[in-house]
Prior knowledge:
The structure is a single chain. By secondary structure, this protein is mainly α. It has 8 helices and no strands. The protein has helices spanning 3-28, 32-49, 59-80, 82-95, 104-114, 118-128, 133-140, 144-165. α6 (118-128) packs across α8 (144-165). The chain is globular, with a radius of gyration of 17 Å. The N and C termini lie far apart (46 Å). The model has no long low-confidence stretch (mean pLDDT 82).
Amino acid sequence: xxxxxxxxxxxxxxxxxxxxxxxxxxxxxxxxxxxxxxxxxxxxxxxxxxxxxxxxxxxxxxxxxxxxxxxxxxxxxxxxxxxxxxxxxxxxxxxxxxxxxxxxxxxxxxxxxxxxxxxxxxxxxxxxxxxxxxxxxxxxxxxxxxxxxxxxxxxxxxxxxxxxxxxxxx
Length: 170
């Protein structure tokens, strides 16, 4: 595969699946700076993976898998450097303008998702995007039946948190 072909595929994938990639980014990175870094890292990994894509799965499944694996590795690296980032995040928060108000429920949901462990976070995002249990199992490497058990537990956990926050409509 030529670099030009790889770039064309990447451009098409980025155009079509950017929102999917950003959902993963938003679930794993909290600050705008971290979100930019993670999005860039995922984009690089997607670009690098293009020659290995054999079309044995859906493109969305392939990109999700790359995004989740990259986010997990990135999160692990970031936790190791958390103290250094904390100082920078505090400075950045002071320097940034106050963001425009968004949907409070959506903000709460992403914050709640960020508090889940890595696998539960991945499953939650896949569920929100309408993936089947079989597709979730393929992406995460967990059996379909275990996916179902985890989804029930995640739902109960989020419902409990939403009742504490009075977000019954989530």
